[in-house]
């Protein structure tokens, strides 16, 4: 099933937003693998905290957001080389990397519309 454009935009926005929220302050001396590990761990902590709330899947938005962070966790664990021994996890991680790359590219090309300024909407006297 193909996602309609607004739904696809929301999904990509959630994944890209989760990724952006987990990126650490970059230490100029850190290597790429360490940055990827730090990002993965930050995303995993969000997944753990959200999962501990235990809404049993009834809150679809909460599940959607948790899934976005889980995708980021998988992508950055793959980028850090965490899944070198486990081929199945390596494949899942690669798929997550591709998804994150697509989401980032899509959001760069289709940034969210800015909310209109209330002052601009109010009539002038």
Quick structural gist:
With about 120 residues, the chain is mainly α. The chain contains five helices and no strands. It is globular.
Characterization of this structure:
- The structure is a single chain.
- It is built from five helices and no strands.
- It is globular, with a radius of gyration of 17 Å.
- It has 125 residues and is mostly helical.
- Helix 1 (5-22) packs across helix 3, helix 1 (5-22) crosses helix 4 (87-109) and helix 2 runs antiparallel to helix 3 (60-79).
What's the helix count? Answer: 5
Uncertain ranges: 118-125
Query: What is the radius of gyration computed over CA atoms, rounded to a whole number of angstroms?
Result: 17 Å
Largest sheet: none
Distance between the termini: 51 Å
Percentage of β-strand residues: under 5%
Helical content stands at: 55-70%
Structural class: mainly alpha
Query: Any idea what the shape is?
Result: globular
Q: Quote the average pLDDT.
A: 84
Number of strands: 0
**In sequence order, what are the helices and strands, one letter per element?**
HHHHH
